[in-house]
Structures are given as structure tokens and as C-alpha cells.
Q: What sequence folds into this?
């Protein structure tokens, strides 16, 4: 199945602004992130922390909904889903 990726800020520099990723049927957000991370060590470091967890400053939106409000990393994906990746906005 094809999943459309939209990348913003530092993720755009590593992935381009829009792309598609082919995943097996039944894949979840964790499978997508692992597929993306396998492209480069730099990208892996931007997606996962040193313990292998999704970085806290990474926002993952699946069809406009934050993945943590769904099933987290186990959120199932379907053909044609759109996943957006962008850093958390912090500041004062």
C-alpha cells in the first residue's frame, strides 16, 4: 500500500516536502517510521531517541490526527493515508 508523507522543517531537508512510501498491508506508524529511518543514520536520529523510542519532539499526524490520540506507534495505516512529520514548536 502507498502512504503519502508530508515533511516539514528539519524533516523536509531529509525527506523532501512530499513523498510516498510503499508498505505491506496491515502496517502501522511504527513500520512507516522504521522504513524512513532505514534511509540514513541522520534521519534515524531525528525520528528515534537513543533508546529507540519515537522522539518526544516529533509530531506525527495521520490524516490530520496526532498519532498519540489514536493508537500511538501501533496506529494502523491504510492505502492512501497521509502522514505528516514536523517538530514540536517550543519557545517563549
A:
Amino acid at each position: 500500500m502507498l502512504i503519502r508523507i508530508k515533511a516539514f522543517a528539519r524533516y523536509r531537508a531529509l525527506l523532501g516536502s512530499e513523498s510516498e512510501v510503499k508498505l505491506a498491508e496491515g502496517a502501522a506508524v511504527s513500520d512507516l517510521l522504521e522504513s524512513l529511518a532505514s534511509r540514513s543514520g541522520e534521519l534515524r536520529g531525528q525520528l528515534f531517541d537513543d533508546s529507540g523510542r519515537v522522539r518526544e519532539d516529533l509530531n506525527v499526524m495521520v490524516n490530520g490526527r496526532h498519532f498519540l490520540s489514536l493508537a500511538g506507534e501501533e496506529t494502523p495505516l491504510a492505502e492512501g493515508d497521509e502522514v505528516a512529520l514536523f517538530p514540536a514548536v517550543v519557545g517563549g
